[in-house]
Specification:
Elements lengths: L1 H12 L10 E4 L5 E6 L5 E9 L12 H7 L4 E2 L2 E2 H11 L2 E6 L3 E9 L3 H13 L5 H18 L3 H14 L12 H6 L2 H11 L5 E7 L3 H12 L20 E6 L4 E9 L8 H13 L5 H8 L7 E7 L4 E10 L3 H18 L3 H14 L7 H13 L6 H10 L3 H11 L6 E6 L10
Parallel strand pairs: 2-8, 9-13
Antiparallel strand pairs: 1-2, 3-7, 3-8, 4-5, 6-7, 10-12, 10-13, 11-12
Helix pairs in contact: 2-8, 4-9, 10-13, 10-16, 11-12, 12-16
């Protein structure tokens, strides 16, 4: 019954997008900073935590330790083994989620007000006192190894791995966050404990909460939840030196359809040209079927089912990247068209109509993202990690609308770089030569 109640509450929390989101900044008695959106309409709270650093904090020789550690957080904590932990979460109707990427460990919690204290205690155990039982380690290790073996035969995964190795080299971004079969097989419980100490620390946590809770209640909750974490964690990785020489790197793989990832240098979220570049990318390859790449590569020539681009602003690097898949006998043509569109947009710019259509879509779609407590909490914690102010939500569409035609076309001339545009192609494409070693 309680599970049904939570399901109904989550559905209610995901109903219509809000016209405005009022974000309050709080500091707990224990000096943790957090953002809060109070909403007492339903007895439910969404809590989001992000710990900066993520899998890039892996110690030398222990690649994959942070990924494995995070996967084990819900596999037993405190006095509860994996089965008891899952059963308690079920009884409380609490939804707890743990994830890791190159830049952050993410923790998501959804709980009913009536079960708040017990749900937070359960979450606290998973963060402060995970068991890392040997049977759980071996079970999750086997799952990770199975995923790594499967990735070795997936062209898109191979392309992603080879592109990362080329672009980022020896930086942690240059290797799989899950590790390799060899590194994961060699991980010990001590490696996992070290990853836990290094990744989950108070000096790198970002917090947002949305729902039925006051600032005073949230302050006490967070100090109880996080107060016993280490004050500092492992050093954050340095900036990455990018290798984007232009040209094509071929990776031979027997498959009827080649997969290509492409990239050039990008720009930081706080660069003055960011919003113009953001709109420019929507027109180039981020706007679905209305983008230039989809129009030219798919609609006019039928070279692919899909092609896209996006600006990736990572903690240690920024790239402008994208992907396309095409039959082996058509991949060379697809790459030629992408290069041509990159150059055409750089040289001729966008039209006034394209700019206005992009603005209309981007400003109209933005409010629809705020469609529930969980989504708002996730957006808010992401804003904190990006160094954005609490009023960004209210000002964002104004910044989109402020971009002029002259500005976006200047950005196209200055940022679109066909000389640096580099393709990593996995397959057996006809008519393509390897130009990047």
């Amino acid at each position: 019954m309680i599970r049904l109640v939570l399901t109904l509450v989550l559905l209610a929390a995901a109903l219509p997008a809000r016209a405005g989101v009022e974000v309050a900044e709080i500091t707990t008695p224990g000096e943790l900073d957090a953002w809060l959106v109070e909403d007492h309409a339903i007895p439910f709270v969404a809590l989001e935590l992000r710990f900066r650093g993520g899998t890039s904090l892996d110690a030398p020789g222990a690649r994959g330790a942070t990924n494995l550690m995070v996967a084990l957080l819900e596999e037993g904590a405190g006095e509860r083994d994996a089965r008891a932990f899952a059963q308690t979460a079920e009884e409380l109707a609490a939804r707890l989620g743990y994830d890791a990427n190159d830049d952050a460990v993410s923790v998501s919690a959804r709980f009913l007000t009536e079960n708040r204290a017990a749900s937070v205690d359960l979450l606290r155990d998973s963060l402060i006192a995970p068991r890392f039982d040997e049977d759980a380690i071996e079970r999750v290790r086997a799952q990770v190894l199975a995923g790594l073996r499967e990735a070795e035969t997936n062209p898109r995964d191979i392309a992603s791995r080879e592109a990362a190795r080329l672009i980022y080299g020896d930086h942690p971004y240059g290797s799989r966050r899950e590790g390799t079969p060899e590194s994961v097989a060699a991980l010990t419980r001590d490696d996992i404990l070290a990853a836990h100490r290094g990744a989950l620390a108070r000096d790198r946590v970002y917090i947002s909460a949305v729902g039925d809770i006051t600032a005073q209640e949230l302050g006490a909750l967070l100090d109880h939840l996080l107060g016993d974490l280490p004050e500092t964690g492992a050093p954050l990785p340095p900036r990455a030196d990018l290798t984007l020489p232009g040209g094509v790197r071929l990776v031979d793989f027997a498959t009827p359809q080649s997969v290509a990832l492409f990239a050039q240098p990008g720009l930081d979220r706080h660069h003055p040209d960011f919003f113009a570049a953001f709109i420019l990318n929507h027109i180039l390859g981020g706007g679905g079927f209305e983008s230039r790449l989809m129009t030219e590569v798919r609609e006019k020539r039928g070279l692919t089912y899909g092609v896209y681009s996006y600006i990736a602003d990572r903690d240690a690097a920024e790239i402008w990247t994208g992907s396309v898949a095409s039959a082996n006998d058509r991949m060379a043509d697809a790459i030629a068209v992408i290069r041509a569109e990159w150059a055409r947009l750089r040289d001729a710019g966008v039209t006034a109509e394209e700019l206005e259509n992009a603005k209309t879509y981007l400003t109209g779609a933005y409010p629809l993202r705020f469609d529930g407590n969980g989504t708002i909490a996730s957006i808010a914690v992401g804003m904190q990690m990006d160094g954005l102010p609490t009023d960004y939500i209210a000002r964002r569409n104004d910044m989109v609308n402020a971009v002029t035609l002259d500005e976006i076309n200047r950005v196209a001339r200055e940022w679109l770089d066909t000389e640096a545009l580099t393709f990593v192609v996995v397959g057996q494409p006809e008519g393509l030569e390897n130009t990047v070693n």
